[in-house]
Structure formats: structure tokens, C-alpha cells
Task: inverse folding
């Protein structure tokens, strides 16, 4: 059982006290850290004079002393209960000095202040600051922070915190100190400090108003050659935010620090971002193209938070999507501008439709603005981030780019320096557009993925075409009945040549449960292209024939929908194969898909990146999400058969295209080169399904010739997952010896093995856990091995002997004592038991029960497990 109470949005109360200034002093020692905080506090206007001051402090924080206006606090004046420290009988204005002792070296949860491989680092969002000192640890309490760090000079030459360095000096015994001041009032979750022996890469950016900003990226010396791309991305993001949103940076220095131990991707602490190395280090030899793009987008995301998150922050954690949904939307548009809008959209929608739709259909489903939580860390979800970004995108679609920009200008101007709500964001959009967005706000309050059913009729005599749109939304834990959403549905009507019928591309606004839209003067039965660009996060149902999908995959006037038509055609075929497998019928290949794939392979008009995407079959995860009851074996075998059959039927074309995409040119991370490598790797993947020694040799030659990780890793993956076991072992070994000193590359090496679908994966995973490069305290290693096995190796994880499930439960129980956030995240696959057959359901539930029987579960794991059984 968990001790932590459920927190409700409806119980929100404004804070009774504000902290004007926060002076912190950290004495960093090997065994312990002493923290002295000096707070100047005032009672909030209108607050009850009897109101207590509530400070938060984690149980691991040892309280050494509390002084109020210079006097030790009397025993009856304060009370510590759970995470709350309440002070009574307070003056309207006072100073509080609080001394605490903490133990960063023993902090394995990686929240608050901890040591990552000899480097002190913090993670305070959402509630990590209370693991450092007693403080009103809530985002609507903002304060000006001054921070002094004291540490051994030789071990910790670099001492960083938010804002600007204002003083420094040396002390006896080889110690030194630095004081930092951040002029912008901020909530405690944006506080950060770093101390360590770090190297830096420097550059400058001149803002639109001519201010010169110092940019620094810190990492371990061995990684200094991997920082140029992050720096370049940062400068492009700074410029983009000035151009697209009119947002200028507001301090003289912007720092990023890369650390090896990090629970998430990165953190936007004011002026001092802290990043997982995986989201900042990039070098062609060690980093794939996909990882380069991730670095670019995460660097931009954290930078964009400086306005959407830091200058305007959240009133409470229920409003998390206020900053995350908006900032994800901003980073998505940035990446689209840097690369290709269509490719980026395909990537976003694929992720949304597999992972977020699955979350929305599972026991942890919650609205973009949740109503309650036990542990806020459990709500850093795809729903809050990715669906939240879709909601902002819909506002952009409904208002159009100009009004949307006026809306963000108003939002930033009106709320600068405030802690606000998602309602405030929508209100700014309503005010600039004069539109009533009250119905639209249901996207924030109702969970679940809406269904959009579309039917049509053509009246030839009247030349009228009608689209009948019908929406519904399944029940989710917070509500059984849903009210209709305000849904932008972008459409076009095409004639039988595939040309756009003039005037028919438009955004239909569906607001009722059912609505008919009429188009006049339509000369012949048109073919509708629906939900273009995926204009709303819904499941579309329209009875296209296979032939119509094949036609749309060639002619749709929307790039996203061209891809989508091909995908849906492949989905149908795969669903028929899945049914065949379950009925014990032999697989057979339908000619239509071969024709479509063949014409894509031959089409020289299609850009190679798009071609690679078009030729990639829907993932097992997406097929699982679409399934009524998930049959992991049938899904795996059907997809495997189809890949192999397409490889065989079009063998010469795959090989020709691989050859055409092969190049001697030195690596470049440009759009054209990324596209070329992607298509080349897709071809290799198909060819390697044929179990043909000639293609094994081709893969090995690609592995050996590669001057970059994108081609080397794809070759390794193809061989490692093939049936050539000796070659697989040899290549994995060679790769290991080449890269064993590169921790991030070793994560790839671990992940490739953990995702190998061949039988016996669990035993291989057990061996990986014994491997010297494995470190069960490092979240990246846990994700590479445990996360990958349980989420990207469905045939093995869901083996009917139940061993995969027991393995995961063992790891959760072990990890919960060490790092509850990671334990809770890794638990996700077990929570999805309702989607499986009776036998698997029982096995999965049994493991959830076993976890729940553990007496001292963290709130994190308790919340997820208890809501899931
Ligand atoms: N605000 C960070 C980001 O999205 C994520 C931090 C989440 N941390 C956590 N412990 N849940 O950029
Ligand atoms: Zn964020």
C-alpha cells in the first residue's frame, strides 16, 4: 500500500505565502551535502492571517535547524507530517533560515540532487526540490534564487547554477565557491545545480535586439567532440523562436550539461538545461541519423520552454500540458521547418497512433489535463505531451497561422511572469479570434480517442455530394459518457483522374455528434481525401475499397494522406494474414500490394525519404493497437511473411535500389543524405529476410564500409536478427570491440540483442544483465535492455510460459526501491493485459497482483499497478 494521498484538481488553493527571495548555500562533501536556505517570505494578499505556511520536504531530508527572524522556531510553532512541514502563528513578513542534510551519493532515484558518475546534478521537476530542502514545492510559488556552491576545487572545478555568476573565491583545504544569481523569479522545479570536472564547448548567439549571449555545452572531456550538432541546433532554435514566435532569449548565458544518469530526456532549468547524454551527444561515427534528429528536437524543445514553461509557467501540475503540449507543438514545427513537413508528420502520427492511442485505451487513460493523481511523475505521458501537442495543433488549424500567432503573442504578454492554466491559453486564442472555444476545451477534459465515422452519398441529378460525419468516444476511467468534441476535419475531393476539385479543400468543423456537409456543383462522384495531415487525433472510419486506397496512395493532394493510404492498404492485408494464421490457413500474397510496392520502388518522382517510409510496413505495435484482441504470434508471423514475400517478389528491385542508394561520399547529416541512407537501409532490411548468403555478404560489406553509425547499425541489426547465427554472433562481437568505450553505442548494442525476435530472447537478456557494460542503476541501460525486451520484442515478452511477465515483475520489485520513476515506467506493458487472450490476461494480472502485495511500494508503482489490476 502507498501512503501518498490522491491529489485533486478541484481542491486547488492559491498559496497563502509567497517567497520573495531564496538564497541557497550548498556545501558539497563526499558523504553528505549541507543545504542552508534563507527565505524572505510574505503572506499573500487576502490570505487568512492564521493561515499556516506549508513547506514540502521528502522523508530523506534531515532537518537540522529552522530559524524565524533570527530565533529558533518553538516546538509548538511547527509540525512535520509526511511530506508537509507546517509553520503556525506567523507574521505577515518574515525571514526563515532552514538547514538540511542530504546524501546525494545515495540518491539512486535521480530526483533532487544526485551524483551521476562523479558529477553532481539535479532534477527538480516535478517534485524533486523537496528532496533538497524544505520549500513550498509548487509551481505557483515563484522566487528570485541566489545560489552559492562550495566544493573541492580539484574534483569539482566547474560549479554551475541558474542565471549569472556574480562572485567566486577560494577557501582553505583546496575548496572553492561560486555564487550564481537568477534575476527571473521562478518556481523551485526550475532550480538546477551542477558540480563536476566537465569540459565545455562554447559559442555565441546575437539576439534580434543585438544582445550577445554566451552559449556553453558541458560534457565529460571524452565527449567534447560530440557537441557541435547540439550547439548548431541550439542556435537554429534561438533564431527560429525569434522569427516564428517573436521570442528573444532573456539572460546573458545559456548552458547545457550532459549527464549519463538521467530519468528522462532533458530538463529546461532556467539558463541551465540538464540533458541525458543520449539527447545531446552526436557524432556521425557513433550516432544514427534518427538520434541526430532527436538531439536537434530535444535541444529545441528545452530551449523553447524558456518562454512556454519558464516565463509563463503552470499554476499546478494538472496544467502540465500547458507547457508540454505547447512546447512539443513548437518543437514539431521547428523540426518540420528544418527537414520535411510530411516526413515529420508521419513520424508524429505513427507514434501518437501506436503509443498514445494505446495509453488512451488502457487503464491509465487520462485527459490532457488530468483531474487527479497520486504521483505526478506518472503523468509525464504521451497524452500530456503528444496529444497535448495535437490539441494545440488543432487550435492552429482552426484559427490559421496569423490568428494563432496573435494568440500566442497575447498569451505571452498577458501572462509573462505568471503561473497559469490551460484555460488561460485557450482564452488568449478565443480573445484574438473572437471565437467561442468553450466546446473545444473538452479536448483538455475528456480522455479517450474519438472515433470519426464518415459516410457519403452523391446525388448525380442535383450534382450534390454529401459527407455525413459522426463522432463518438469510448468510455475511459474518468467518464463513461462523452460530449461531442469540436473537431477540425481537413478534407479534399478528388476527381477520377486524382485532381483536386477546385474549392473543395477545406477544414470542416464538426461540433455535433452527427453532422452533414454538402458540396454543390460536383459533376461526378468524387473520391474524398479525409482528415488530411491528420487534422484531429481520432480513429477514422470510411469504407474505402482497396483499389481506392491504392489510387489515393498515388494521387492524394496531401503528402501525409498519400502515405496513409498505402499504410491502410498494408494494414488490411496484414489483418487478413493475421486471420489466416489464426485459422491455420497457409499465407498467400495478394497481388495488389505487390503492384503498389513495385510502383513505389520504380517511381523516380518520390523523394527517397518518403519512399523509405512508404515501403515500410505498419509496425507490430500499430497492428496491436488496432487489434480487438492482440495475438503477438499471429501479428509477428503475418508481418514477417509479408516482408519476406515482398522481398522475394521484388528482389531485383530492392537490390537495384540498394545499389542506387549506395554512395562513396563522406557522411553528411543533410536532408538528402539522411534520405539516401534511410532508403538504403530499408532495402537491406527486406533483402535480409530472404536468408540468402549473398545478402548476408552485402550486409557485412555495408557494416565494414560504413563511415557512420546509421549504416553500420542498420547492417548490424539486419544480421543480428537474421537466421545466420554464427555471423550474427561474430558481427555483434566485432561491434562490441569497436565501441565498448562508447556508452551510448553500447546501449544500441544491448537494444539490438534485446529486440531480437528469435526464440530464447529471455535467456539472452539474462546474459546481457550479467555483462560488465550493463549497469542496473543507469536508466539508459535499463531502457536498452528491460524496456526494449518488454516493449519491442512482443513475441518473446508475451511467450505463453509467462516467463517474460515474471521477469518484468522481478525487475519492477527490485527497481522500485532504487528508482520508482523508472520502475513505474517500465511497468507499462503489464498494465495492458485487457487487450490479450484469457490465458495471457491471467498471467499478466498475476504478476500485477504480485507487485501489489509488496508492502512498501512507492507511490509511483502503486498508482500504476493499482489502477491497472
Ligand atoms: N520538463 C521536462 C521536459 O519535458 C521533463 C522533465 C520530466 N521529469 C520528470 N521527473 N518527470 O522537457
Ligand atoms: Zn518539455
Result:
Amino acid at each position: 500500500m502507498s501512503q501518498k494521498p490522491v491529489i485533486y484538481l478541484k481542491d486547488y488553493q492559491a498559496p497563502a505565502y509567497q517567497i520573495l527571495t531564496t538564497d541557497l548555500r550548498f556545501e558539497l562533501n563526499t558523504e553528505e551535502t549541507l543545504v542552508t536556505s534563507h527565505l524572505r517570505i510574505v503572506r499573500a494578499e487576502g490570505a487568512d492571517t492564521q493561515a499556516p505556511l506549508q513547506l514540502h520536504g521528502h522523508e530523506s531530508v534531515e532537518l537540522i535547524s529552522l530559524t524565524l527572524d533570527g530565533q529558533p522556531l518553538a516546538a509548538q510553532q511547527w509540525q512535520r507530517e509526511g511530506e508537509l512541514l507546517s509553520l503556525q502563528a506567523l507574521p505577515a513578513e518574515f525571514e526563515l533560515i532552514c538547514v538540511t542534510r542530504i546524501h546525494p551519493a545515495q540518491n539512486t532515484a535521480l530526483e533532487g540532487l544526485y551524483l551521476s558518475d562523479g558529477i553532481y546534478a539535479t532534477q527538480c521537476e516535478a517534485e524533486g526540490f523537496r528532496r533538497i530542502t524544505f520549500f513550498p514545492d509548487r509551481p505557483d510559488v515563484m522566487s528570485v534564487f541566489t545560489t552559492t556552491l562550495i566544493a573541492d576545487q580539484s574534483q569539482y572545478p566547474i560549479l554551475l547554477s541558474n542565471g549569472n555568476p556574480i562572485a567566486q573565491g577560494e577557501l582553505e583545504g583546496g575548496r572553492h565557491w561560486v555564487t550564481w544569481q537568477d534575476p527571473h523569479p521562478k518556481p523551485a522545479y526550475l532550480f538546477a545545480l551542477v558540480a563536476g570536472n566537465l569540459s565545455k564547448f562554447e559559442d555565441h548567439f546575437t539576439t534580434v535586439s543585438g544582445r550577445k549571449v554566451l552559449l556553453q555545452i558541458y560534457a565529460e572531456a571524452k565527449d567534447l567532440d560530440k557537441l557541435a550538432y547540439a550547439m548548431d541546433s541550439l542556435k537554429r532554435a534561438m533564431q527560429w523562436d525569434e522569427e516564428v514566435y517573436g521570442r528573444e532569449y532573456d539572460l546573458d548565458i545559456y548552458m547545457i550539461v550532459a549527464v549519463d544518469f538521467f530519468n528522462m530526456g532533458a530538463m529546461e532549468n532556467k539558463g541551465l538545461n540538464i540533458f541525458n547524454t543520449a539527447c545531446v551527444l552526436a557524432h556521425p561515427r557513433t550516432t544514427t541519423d534518427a538520434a541526430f534528429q532527436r538531439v536537434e528536437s530535444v535541444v529545441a524543445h528545452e530551449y523553447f520552454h524558456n518562454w512556454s514553461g519558464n516565463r509563463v509557467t503552470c499554476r499546478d501540475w494538472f496544467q502540465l500540458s500547458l507547457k508540454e503540449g505547447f512546447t512539443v507543438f513548437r518543437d514539431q514545427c521547428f523540426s518540420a521547418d528544418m527537414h520535411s513537413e510530411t516526413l515529420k508528420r508521419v513520424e508524429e502520427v505513427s507514434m501518437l497512433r501506436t503509443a498514445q492511442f494505446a495509453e488512451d485505451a488502457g487503464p491509465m487513460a487520462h485527459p490532457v489535463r488530468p483531474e487527479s493523481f497520486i504521483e505526478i511523475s506518472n503523468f509525464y505521458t504521451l497524452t500530456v505531451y503528444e496529444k497535448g501537442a495535437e490539441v494545440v495543433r488543432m487550435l492552429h488549424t482552426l484559427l490559421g497561422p496569423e490568428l494563432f500567432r496573435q494568440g500566442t503573442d497575447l498569451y505571452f504578454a498577458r501572462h509573462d511572469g505568471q503561473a497559469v492554466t490551460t484555460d488561460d491559453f485557450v482564452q488568449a486564442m478565443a480573445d484574438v479570434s473572437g471565437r467561442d472555444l468553450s466546446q473545444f476545451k473538452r479536448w483538455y477534459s475528456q480522455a479517450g480517442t474519438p472515433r470519426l465515422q464518415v459516410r457519403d452519398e452523391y446525388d448525380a441529378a442535383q450534382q450534390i455530394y454529401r459527407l455525413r460525419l459522426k463522432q463518438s468516444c469510448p468510455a475511459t476511467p474518468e467518464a463513461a459518457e462523452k460530449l461531442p468534441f469540436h473537431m477540425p476535419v481537413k478534407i479534399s475531393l478528388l476527381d477520377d483522374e486524382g485532381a483536386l476539385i477546385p474549392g473543395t479543400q477545406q477544414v470542416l468543423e464538426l461540433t455535433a455528434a452527427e453532422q452533414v456537409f454538402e458540396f454543390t456543383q460536383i459533376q461526378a462522384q468524387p473520391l474524398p481525401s479525409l482528415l488530411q495531415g491528420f487534422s484531429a487525433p481520432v480513429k477514422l472510419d470510411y469504407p474505402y475499397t482497396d483499389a481506392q486506397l491504392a489510387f489515393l496512395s498515388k494521387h492524394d493532394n496531401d503528402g501525409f494522406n498519400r502515405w496513409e493510404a498505402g499504410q491502410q492498404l498494408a494494414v488490411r492485408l496484414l489483418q487478413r494474414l493475421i486471420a489466416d494464421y489464426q485459422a491455420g490457413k497457409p499465407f498467400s500474397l495478394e497481388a495488389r500490394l505487390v503492384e503498389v510496392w513495385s510502383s513505389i520502388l520504380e517511381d523516380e518522382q518520390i523523394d527517397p525519404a518518403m519512399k523509405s517510409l512508404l515501403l515500410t510496413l505498419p509496425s507490430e505495435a500499430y497492428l496491436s493497437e488496432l487489434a480487438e484482441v492482440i495475438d503477438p504470434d499471429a501479428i509477428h508471423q503475418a508481418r514477417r511473411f509479408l516482408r519476406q514475400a515482398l522481398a522475394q517478389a521484388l528482389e531485383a528491385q530492392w537490390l537495384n535500389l540498394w545499389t542506387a542508394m549506395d554512395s562513396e561520399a563522406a557522411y553528411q547529416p543533410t536532408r538528402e543524405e539522411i534520405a539516401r541512407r534511410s532508403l538504403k537501409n530499408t532495402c537491406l532490411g527486406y533483402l535480409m529476410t530472404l536468408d540468402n548468403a549473398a545478402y548476408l555478404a552485402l550486409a557485412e560489406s555495408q557494416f565494414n564500409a560504413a563511415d557512420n553509425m546509421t549504416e553500420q547499425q542498420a547492417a548490424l541489426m539486419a544480421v543480428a536478427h537474421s537466421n545466420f547465427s554464427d555471423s550474427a554472433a561474430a558481427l555483434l562481437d566485432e561491434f562490441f570491440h569497436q565501441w565498448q568505450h562508447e556508452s551510448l553505442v553500447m546501449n544500441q548494442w544491448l537494444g539490438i540483442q534485446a529486440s531480437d525476435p528469435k526464440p530464447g530472447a529471455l535467456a539472452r537478456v539474462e546474459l546481457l544483465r550479467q555483462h560488465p557494460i550493463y549497469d542496473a542503476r543507469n536508466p539508459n541501460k535499463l531502457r536498452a535492455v528491460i524496456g526494449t525486451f518488454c516493449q519491442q520484442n512482443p513475441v518473446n515478452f508475451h511467450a505463453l510460459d509467462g516467463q517474460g511477465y515474471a521477469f518484468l515483475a522481478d525487475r519492477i520489485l527490485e527497481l522500485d526501491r532504487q528508482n520508482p520513476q523508472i520502475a513505474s515506467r517500465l511497468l507499462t506493458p503489464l498494465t495492458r493485459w485487457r487487450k490479450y487472450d484469457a490465458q495471457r490476461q491471467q498471467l499478466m494480472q498475476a504478476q500485477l497482483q504480485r507487485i501489489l502485495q509488496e508492502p512498501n511500494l512507492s507511490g509511483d508503482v502503486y498508482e500504476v499497478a493499482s489502477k491497472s489490476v
